[in-house]
Amino acid sequence: MTTDIWTPAILGGITLKNRFAMAPMTRSRALQDGTPGPLAAEYYGQRADLGLIIAEGAQPSEDGQGYMATPGIYTDAHVAGWRPVAEAVHAKGARLFIQLMHVGRTSHPDNTPHHRLGFAPSAIAPEDQIFTPTGPQPIPVPREMTQGDICVAVAEFRQAARRAIEAGADGVEIHGANGYLIQQFFAPNANQRTDAYGGSIENRARFAIAVARAVADEIGADRTGIRLSPGATLGGLEEGAEGPDLYRHLVTELNGFGLAYLHLMHLGNEALLADIRSIWNQVLILNRPGRALADVGKDVASGIADIEAYGQFVLANPDFLDRLKSGAKINQSDRASFFGGGAEGYVDYPVLAEQGAAQ
Questions:
Q1: How far, in Å, CA of 232 to CA of 52, rounded?
Q2: Suppose 258 and one of 90, 129, 221, 245 were both cysteines; which one would form an S-S bond, judging by CB atoms 3.0 to 4.6 Å apart?
Q3: pLDDT for 66-88, tens place per residue?
Protein backbone atom coordinates (compact mmCIF):
# COMPACT_ATOMS: atom_id res chain seq x y z
CA MET A 1 0.00 0.00 0.00
CA THR A 2 1.47 3.34 -1.06
CA THR A 3 1.50 6.38 1.20
CA ASP A 4 0.27 9.74 -0.03
CA ILE A 5 2.28 12.85 0.78
CA TRP A 6 -0.95 14.63 1.75
CA THR A 7 -1.72 12.21 4.59
CA PRO A 8 -0.77 12.81 8.25
CA ALA A 9 2.45 11.43 9.71
CA ILE A 10 3.69 10.65 13.22
CA LEU A 11 7.00 12.33 14.03
CA GLY A 12 8.37 11.40 17.41
CA GLY A 13 5.54 12.23 19.78
CA ILE A 14 3.64 14.60 17.47
CA THR A 15 1.32 14.32 14.50
CA LEU A 16 1.97 16.24 11.29
CA LYS A 17 -1.02 17.22 9.16
CA ASN A 18 0.81 16.24 5.96
CA ARG A 19 4.19 14.94 4.81
CA PHE A 20 5.65 18.20 3.54
CA ALA A 21 8.52 19.89 5.38
CA MET A 22 10.02 23.32 4.86
CA ALA A 23 13.77 22.87 4.60
CA PRO A 24 15.93 25.15 6.77
CA MET A 25 17.22 28.15 4.82
CA THR A 26 19.48 30.90 6.11
CA ARG A 27 17.91 34.31 5.43
CA SER A 28 20.25 36.63 7.43
CA ARG A 29 17.55 38.89 8.79
CA ALA A 30 18.16 38.58 12.52
CA LEU A 31 18.86 41.56 14.76
CA GLN A 32 22.42 42.43 15.70
CA ASP A 33 22.24 40.42 18.93
CA GLY A 34 20.97 37.32 17.13
CA THR A 35 17.30 37.75 18.05
CA PRO A 36 15.00 36.71 15.18
CA GLY A 37 13.93 39.74 13.18
CA PRO A 38 10.51 41.41 13.51
CA LEU A 39 9.18 39.71 10.34
CA ALA A 40 10.30 36.18 11.21
CA ALA A 41 6.95 35.12 12.71
CA GLU A 42 5.08 36.39 9.65
CA TYR A 43 7.52 34.64 7.29
CA TYR A 44 7.23 31.24 8.93
CA GLY A 45 3.54 31.60 9.67
CA GLN A 46 2.82 32.27 5.99
CA ARG A 47 4.32 28.89 5.11
CA ALA A 48 2.76 26.80 7.87
CA ASP A 49 0.35 24.99 5.58
CA LEU A 50 3.17 22.46 5.45
CA GLY A 51 3.14 19.89 8.22
CA LEU A 52 6.65 20.61 9.47
CA ILE A 53 8.57 23.89 9.50
CA ILE A 54 12.32 23.44 10.04
CA ALA A 55 13.55 26.92 10.86
CA GLU A 56 16.82 28.33 9.59
CA GLY A 57 20.03 27.44 11.38
CA ALA A 58 20.41 29.12 14.77
CA GLN A 59 23.82 29.26 16.39
CA PRO A 60 24.06 27.58 19.82
CA SER A 61 26.72 30.02 21.02
CA GLU A 62 28.83 32.99 19.99
CA ASP A 63 31.45 30.58 18.69
CA GLY A 64 28.83 28.93 16.50
CA GLN A 65 28.10 31.99 14.39
CA GLY A 66 29.61 32.28 10.94
CA TYR A 67 27.50 34.68 8.89
CA MET A 68 26.12 38.14 9.53
CA ALA A 69 22.60 38.51 10.91
CA THR A 70 21.92 34.86 11.64
CA PRO A 71 19.72 34.06 14.65
CA GLY A 72 20.88 32.49 17.89
CA ILE A 73 19.16 30.31 20.43
CA TYR A 74 21.26 30.71 23.58
CA THR A 75 20.09 33.89 25.38
CA ASP A 76 16.85 35.02 27.00
CA ALA A 77 16.38 37.56 24.19
CA HIS A 78 16.70 34.82 21.59
CA VAL A 79 14.11 32.68 23.37
CA ALA A 80 11.71 35.63 23.52
CA GLY A 81 12.29 36.32 19.83
CA TRP A 82 11.55 32.75 18.77
CA ARG A 83 8.30 32.50 20.76
CA PRO A 84 6.20 34.50 18.26
CA VAL A 85 7.57 32.27 15.49
CA ALA A 86 6.42 29.14 17.31
CA GLU A 87 3.03 30.72 18.00
CA ALA A 88 2.54 31.70 14.35
CA VAL A 89 3.42 28.22 13.12
CA HIS A 90 1.23 26.49 15.70
CA ALA A 91 -1.70 28.80 14.92
CA LYS A 92 -1.92 27.18 11.48
CA GLY A 93 -1.63 23.64 12.80
CA ALA A 94 1.99 23.05 11.79
CA ARG A 95 4.95 21.97 13.92
CA LEU A 96 8.24 23.79 14.41
CA PHE A 97 11.76 22.38 14.76
CA ILE A 98 14.62 24.88 15.10
CA GLN A 99 17.85 23.86 13.45
CA LEU A 100 20.98 24.13 15.62
CA MET A 101 23.86 25.25 13.39
CA HIS A 102 27.46 25.54 14.56
CA VAL A 103 29.50 26.61 11.54
CA GLY A 104 32.94 25.68 12.87
CA ARG A 105 35.61 27.03 10.54
CA THR A 106 33.13 28.71 8.17
CA SER A 107 33.40 31.95 10.09
CA HIS A 108 35.14 35.30 10.34
CA PRO A 109 35.93 37.36 13.45
CA ASP A 110 34.19 40.39 11.93
CA ASN A 111 30.87 38.50 11.92
CA THR A 112 30.80 37.26 15.53
CA PRO A 113 29.91 39.09 18.76
CA HIS A 114 33.27 38.32 20.38
CA HIS A 115 35.42 38.78 17.24
CA ARG A 116 37.37 35.59 17.84
CA LEU A 117 38.61 33.10 15.26
CA GLY A 118 36.35 30.20 14.50
CA PHE A 119 37.43 26.75 15.55
CA ALA A 120 37.45 23.40 13.79
CA PRO A 121 38.70 19.83 14.14
CA SER A 122 42.04 20.94 12.70
CA ALA A 123 43.67 24.29 11.91
CA ILE A 124 42.89 24.09 8.20
CA ALA A 125 41.10 26.89 6.34
CA PRO A 126 38.56 26.04 3.62
CA GLU A 127 40.24 28.27 1.00
CA ASP A 128 37.01 30.18 0.48
CA GLN A 129 35.60 33.63 1.13
CA ILE A 130 32.82 34.79 3.42
CA PHE A 131 30.78 37.97 3.29
CA THR A 132 31.51 40.42 6.13
CA PRO A 133 30.44 44.00 6.95
CA THR A 134 33.34 45.24 4.79
CA GLY A 135 32.64 42.87 1.91
CA PRO A 136 33.97 39.43 0.98
CA GLN A 137 37.07 38.32 2.91
CA PRO A 138 39.08 35.11 2.93
CA ILE A 139 38.06 32.72 5.69
CA PRO A 140 40.99 32.67 8.13
CA VAL A 141 42.72 29.58 9.44
CA PRO A 142 40.66 28.36 12.42
CA ARG A 143 42.07 27.33 15.74
CA GLU A 144 42.16 23.61 16.34
CA MET A 145 39.69 22.45 18.98
CA THR A 146 41.08 21.03 22.18
CA GLN A 147 39.24 18.16 23.81
CA GLY A 148 37.96 20.76 26.26
CA ASP A 149 36.58 22.79 23.33
CA ILE A 150 34.82 19.67 22.07
CA CYS A 151 33.17 19.11 25.44
CA VAL A 152 32.07 22.77 25.56
CA ALA A 153 30.60 22.58 22.05
CA VAL A 154 28.60 19.47 22.94
CA ALA A 155 27.29 21.25 26.04
CA GLU A 156 26.33 24.27 23.94
CA PHE A 157 24.25 22.12 21.60
CA ARG A 158 22.56 20.60 24.66
CA GLN A 159 21.75 23.99 26.19
CA ALA A 160 20.54 25.45 22.88
CA ALA A 161 18.16 22.52 22.49
CA ARG A 162 16.70 23.24 25.93
CA ARG A 163 16.32 26.92 25.03
CA ALA A 164 14.52 26.01 21.79
CA ILE A 165 11.94 24.04 23.74
CA GLU A 166 11.57 26.99 26.14
CA ALA A 167 10.83 29.14 23.10
CA GLY A 168 7.92 26.89 22.14
CA ALA A 169 9.55 24.77 19.45
CA ASP A 170 8.39 21.18 19.12
CA GLY A 171 11.98 20.00 18.70
CA VAL A 172 15.36 20.72 17.18
CA GLU A 173 17.31 19.58 14.17
CA ILE A 174 21.06 19.11 14.66
CA HIS A 175 22.85 20.48 11.60
CA GLY A 176 25.35 17.82 10.60
CA ALA A 177 25.48 18.83 6.96
CA ASN A 178 26.49 21.51 4.45
CA GLY A 179 30.14 21.81 5.40
CA TYR A 180 29.67 23.02 8.98
CA LEU A 181 31.31 21.88 12.21
CA ILE A 182 29.84 18.39 12.54
CA GLN A 183 30.53 17.48 8.91
CA GLN A 184 34.03 18.98 9.22
CA PHE A 185 34.83 16.14 11.60
CA PHE A 186 33.82 13.62 8.89
CA ALA A 187 36.16 14.93 6.17
CA PRO A 188 39.84 13.86 6.19
CA ASN A 189 40.89 17.09 4.46
CA ALA A 190 39.43 19.09 7.39
CA ASN A 191 40.08 16.64 10.21
CA GLN A 192 43.68 15.52 10.67
CA ARG A 193 43.44 14.84 14.38
CA THR A 194 45.32 11.96 15.97
CA ASP A 195 43.14 11.65 19.07
CA ALA A 196 39.78 9.93 19.61
CA TYR A 197 38.07 12.31 17.18
CA GLY A 198 40.26 11.76 14.12
CA GLY A 199 41.61 9.02 11.87
CA SER A 200 39.21 6.09 11.74
CA ILE A 201 35.60 6.22 10.60
CA GLU A 202 34.48 5.56 14.16
CA ASN A 203 36.57 8.41 15.51
CA ARG A 204 35.48 10.94 12.88
CA ALA A 205 31.82 10.13 13.62
CA ARG A 206 32.33 10.42 17.39
CA PHE A 207 31.57 14.15 17.72
CA ALA A 208 28.26 13.87 15.84
CA ILE A 209 27.22 10.96 18.02
CA ALA A 210 28.14 12.86 21.19
CA VAL A 211 26.07 15.87 20.13
CA ALA A 212 23.06 13.73 19.25
CA ARG A 213 23.28 11.85 22.54
CA ALA A 214 23.52 15.07 24.55
CA VAL A 215 20.59 16.74 22.81
CA ALA A 216 18.40 13.63 23.06
CA ASP A 217 19.24 13.29 26.75
CA GLU A 218 18.33 16.93 27.33
CA ILE A 219 15.00 17.27 25.49
CA GLY A 220 14.07 13.72 24.56
CA ALA A 221 14.97 11.67 21.49
CA ASP A 222 11.44 12.14 20.17
CA ARG A 223 12.13 15.89 19.89
CA THR A 224 15.53 15.48 18.24
CA GLY A 225 16.28 15.27 14.52
CA ILE A 226 19.55 15.46 12.60
CA ARG A 227 20.42 16.59 9.10
CA LEU A 228 23.18 14.96 7.05
CA SER A 229 24.46 15.55 3.52
CA PRO A 230 26.54 12.56 2.43
CA GLY A 231 29.10 13.51 -0.20
CA ALA A 232 28.47 17.24 0.00
CA THR A 233 31.55 19.33 -0.78
CA LEU A 234 30.27 22.61 0.62
CA GLY A 235 32.91 24.49 2.58
CA GLY A 236 35.65 22.69 0.68
CA LEU A 237 35.08 19.33 2.35
CA GLU A 238 36.18 16.05 0.79
CA GLU A 239 34.90 12.97 2.59
CA GLY A 240 36.91 10.60 0.42
CA ALA A 241 36.33 7.00 -0.54
CA GLU A 242 35.39 6.06 3.02
CA GLY A 243 32.59 8.63 3.14
CA PRO A 244 29.69 6.25 2.42
CA ASP A 245 30.93 3.77 5.02
CA LEU A 246 31.24 6.56 7.58
CA TYR A 247 27.57 7.41 7.04
CA ARG A 248 26.54 3.78 7.28
CA HIS A 249 28.31 3.56 10.63
CA LEU A 250 26.98 6.91 11.83
CA VAL A 251 23.36 6.18 10.90
CA THR A 252 23.59 2.76 12.55
CA GLU A 253 24.76 4.39 15.79
CA LEU A 254 22.18 7.18 15.64
CA ASN A 255 19.41 4.70 14.92
CA GLY A 256 19.92 3.24 18.38
CA PHE A 257 18.97 6.56 19.99
CA GLY A 258 15.40 6.49 18.64
CA LEU A 259 15.59 10.04 17.27
CA ALA A 260 12.49 11.65 15.79
CA TYR A 261 13.94 11.81 12.30
CA LEU A 262 16.90 11.79 9.97
CA HIS A 263 16.88 14.56 7.34
CA LEU A 264 19.02 13.75 4.30
CA MET A 265 20.16 16.22 1.68
CA HIS A 266 20.44 13.63 -1.09
CA LEU A 267 23.00 14.27 -3.80
CA GLY A 268 22.55 11.17 -5.91
CA ASN A 269 24.22 8.15 -4.28
CA GLU A 270 21.21 5.87 -4.62
CA ALA A 271 22.98 2.81 -3.19
CA LEU A 272 23.85 4.71 -0.02
CA LEU A 273 20.31 6.09 0.23
CA ALA A 274 18.90 2.56 -0.01
CA ASP A 275 21.28 1.37 2.70
CA ILE A 276 20.37 4.26 4.99
CA ARG A 277 16.68 3.57 4.44
CA SER A 278 17.20 -0.05 5.48
CA ILE A 279 19.26 0.92 8.56
CA TRP A 280 17.06 3.76 9.80
CA ASN A 281 13.93 2.74 11.73
CA GLN A 282 12.46 6.18 12.38
CA VAL A 283 11.12 8.92 10.08
CA LEU A 284 13.31 9.71 7.08
CA ILE A 285 12.97 13.17 5.55
CA LEU A 286 14.40 13.50 2.06
CA ASN A 287 15.53 16.77 0.48
CA ARG A 288 16.57 16.46 -3.18
CA PRO A 289 18.09 19.78 -4.35
CA GLY A 290 16.64 20.71 -7.73
CA ARG A 291 13.74 18.26 -7.49
CA ALA A 292 11.30 18.84 -10.34
CA LEU A 293 7.78 19.95 -9.50
CA ALA A 294 6.44 16.89 -11.31
CA ASP A 295 8.30 14.65 -8.86
CA VAL A 296 6.66 16.02 -5.71
CA GLY A 297 5.33 13.12 -3.67
CA LYS A 298 7.21 10.38 -5.51
CA ASP A 299 9.69 9.62 -2.74
CA VAL A 300 6.91 9.23 -0.17
CA ALA A 301 4.86 7.11 -2.55
CA SER A 302 7.82 4.82 -3.26
CA GLY A 303 8.57 4.40 0.44
CA ILE A 304 12.15 5.66 0.24
CA ALA A 305 11.09 8.65 2.37
CA ASP A 306 8.40 9.37 4.95
CA ILE A 307 8.45 13.14 4.45
CA GLU A 308 9.75 15.34 1.62
CA ALA A 309 11.50 18.65 2.35
CA TYR A 310 11.38 21.65 0.05
CA GLY A 311 13.38 24.86 0.06
CA GLN A 312 13.12 27.44 -2.72
CA PHE A 313 9.64 26.30 -3.78
CA VAL A 314 8.40 27.16 -0.30
CA LEU A 315 10.53 30.28 0.04
CA ALA A 316 8.94 31.81 -3.07
CA ASN A 317 5.45 30.38 -2.60
CA PRO A 318 3.84 30.91 0.81
CA ASP A 319 0.87 28.99 -0.61
CA PHE A 320 2.95 26.22 -2.16
CA LEU A 321 0.44 23.49 -1.30
CA ASP A 322 -2.50 25.44 -2.76
CA ARG A 323 -0.55 25.87 -5.98
CA LEU A 324 0.22 22.16 -6.12
CA LYS A 325 -3.41 21.23 -5.63
CA SER A 326 -4.70 23.68 -8.23
CA GLY A 327 -1.92 23.32 -10.76
CA ALA A 328 -1.31 27.07 -10.63
CA LYS A 329 1.97 28.60 -11.79
CA ILE A 330 4.79 28.60 -9.24
CA ASN A 331 6.51 31.86 -8.28
CA GLN A 332 10.23 31.93 -9.05
CA SER A 333 12.57 32.79 -6.18
CA ASP A 334 14.57 36.02 -6.23
CA ARG A 335 18.17 35.12 -5.41
CA ALA A 336 19.13 38.76 -4.91
CA SER A 337 16.93 38.90 -1.78
CA PHE A 338 17.89 35.55 -0.25
CA PHE A 339 20.20 37.02 2.38
CA GLY A 340 19.63 40.19 4.35
CA GLY A 341 17.21 43.03 3.79
CA GLY A 342 13.64 43.52 4.93
CA ALA A 343 10.22 42.49 3.67
CA GLU A 344 11.15 42.33 -0.01
CA GLY A 345 11.79 38.76 -1.07
CA TYR A 346 10.86 37.60 2.43
CA VAL A 347 7.20 38.14 3.29
CA ASP A 348 5.97 39.80 0.09
CA TYR A 349 5.82 36.87 -2.35
CA PRO A 350 2.29 36.91 -3.83
CA VAL A 351 -0.29 34.25 -3.07
CA LEU A 352 -2.93 33.06 -5.50
CA ALA A 353 -5.70 35.24 -4.04
CA GLU A 354 -3.59 38.37 -4.44
CA GLN A 355 -2.57 37.48 -7.95
CA GLY A 356 -6.17 36.80 -8.91
CA ALA A 357 -7.27 40.17 -7.53
CA ALA A 358 -4.47 41.91 -9.42
CA GLN A 359 -5.52 40.28 -12.67
A1: 24
A2: 221
A3: 999 999 999 999 999 999 999 99
pLDDT in tens, 267-287: 999 999 999 999 999 999 999
- Quote the percentage of the chain above a pLDDT of 90: 96
**Is residue 262 in some structural domain?**
yes
Residue 52 φ/ψ, nearest 5 degrees: -130, 125
**Catalytic residue set:** 180
What is the separation of C-alpha 118 from the centre of its chain, rounded to a whole number of angstroms?
A: 20
pLDDT at 272: 98
Contact 246, 201 (CB under 8 A): yes
Q: Which residues pair with 21 in a beta bridge?
A: 52, 309
Listed in order, strand segments (DSSP E) in the chain are 9-11, 14-16, 20-22, 52-58, 95-100, 119-120, 129-132, 135-138, 143-144, 171-176, 224-228, 261-265, 283-287, 307-310
Give the span between the Cα atoms of 153 and 10, in whole angstroms: 31
pLDDT in tens, 304-344: 999 999 999 999 999 999 999 999 999 999 999 999 999 99
CATH number reported for the structural domain that contains residue 50 in this entry: 3.20.20.70
DSSP assignment of 169-182, as one string? Answer: -SEEEEEE-TTSHH
Query: DSSP letter at 358?
Result: H
Residues 6+ apart with CB under 8 A from 344: 337
Is 4 a domain residue? Answer: no
How buried is 127 (Cβ within 10 angstroms: 0-12 exposed, 13-18 middle, 19+ buried)?
Answer: exposed
Separation CA 300–CA 72 (nearest Å): 33
Which pTM does this prediction carry? Answer: 0.96
Any domain includes 1: no
Instruction: Provide the domain limits for residue 120.
Output: 9-358
